[in-house]
Amino acid sequence: MARATLDGNWEHDHTVPSRTLYPHQWSWDSAFIAIGWAHARPERVWSELTSLFDAQWRDGRVPHIVFNPAVSDAAYFPGPGFWATGSVDAAPPTATSGLVQPPVHALAAWHAYRRAPSDQARAALARLYPRLVAQQHYLASHRDVGGAGLVSIVHPWESGLDNSPAWDDPMAAVPAEAAVLRAYRRRDIVHAAAAHRPTDLDYARYVAIVTAYRAAGYRDGDLAHRHPFLVECPLFNAALGAAEHALAGIAGEIGADPGPHRERAARITAAVVDRLYDPTTGTFHPRDLRTGRLTAARTVLGLTPLILPDLPARQVEAVLVEARSARFGLATAMPRPLPSHDRTAVDFEPQRYWRGPSWMNINWLVRQGLLGHGHAALAAGLGASMVQLAAVAGCHEYFHPDTGAGLGSPAFSWTAALLLDILAED
């Protein structure tokens, strides 16, 4: 099933997330998908990642969407006409968005290489390495709005967890009117139930934030003075640190110097702990740079710093307490994977996108963190719940965290890819 899903979504040099709702190439989707190709068609690992990085901007950013020119502009909202990156000097000739997504690409490339090493793969890894370094440089040099060594995201879409309750407070300060959407037509609710998707008000604010960024030519230099949404995200910054660890491994493999990557990784981990860990709750929270405060919601974002190999033992143990609590239910034998939000919270919504459902990619990341910190039994329990979920419900985009019913797009690529990775490891 997983192999057939990936083959069915292959599009000449990359894989679409799904044939229905997502007809283009998405950034962190391609990273997770590359991990699956290592087990099915290893040569496609490097085509997947190379095709994405061929659309890298001259400033180093890797756009979160690369548009397929053969697909109608009306097939997806917001499409290439909305982003209008063609007039931006730093943008590539290919139509893209102007946002980014969590930098999980170095982690994926290194993981996939170790799954399927070869001379050809090593050569492809060496060609990709400077592009991965440029991605990290862009984020560190252009997006450290808070000045503490962490990246600020400028839109909830950059977190990957679009409508997570983690963004409710900073989003509430974004001025937007539902009338904004009258000029556009949402395509997501054509393919998925509206009750499972972000609300119209969410989308109005999404559009307002992109409009502000687009009006400034997607420049980052004066974000602190003009941009309506600026947040330091635990997942994004944990991925940034994990990427430096992966780049150190890649550098050692191809004959480059791993030392600078290890030094940067240590600094990022220290900043994540200093800026985003709340000793009162024992978990990590986003920091809203507009208010200077940590957001209150306890979401699965708080567990993702486990992917940092050098996360201090105190924080590892605290996060495990949070993960094993009734809020998330991690155990050596668990009926369902982790939900995306605290299941005891009053605003927990088991069917609405990132406000409750279980997602395979976040569970895979947490599982990698568990393995990295020596918690093999918990990782096995989580992995088994993920396999069972897909075996019963199929390779859906996301899943009901209680019933296990498949939600969102069927035949979803990263679900298939990461399922292959767990099955191969088992």
Automatic annotation (TrEMBL):
Keywords: Glycosidase, Hydrolase
InterPro entries xrefs: 6-hairpin_glycosidase_sf, 6hp_glycosidase-like_sf, Glycoside_hydrolase_63, MGH1-like_GH
GO molecular function: Glc3Man9GlcNAc2 oligosaccharide glucosidase activity
Biological process, per Gene Ontology: oligosaccharide metabolic process; protein N-linked glycosylation
Annotated ranges, domain Mannosylglycerate hydrolase MGH1-like glycoside hydrolase: 22-415
Superkingdom assignment: Bacteria
The keyword Membrane is annotated on this UniProt entry: no
Pfam families in the cross-refs: MGH1-like_GH
Family: Belongs to the glycosyl hydrolase 63 family.
Protein name: Mannosylglycerate hydrolase MGH1-like glycoside hydrolase domain-containing protein
Lineage: Bacteria, Bacillati, Actinomycetota, Actinomycetes, Micromonosporales
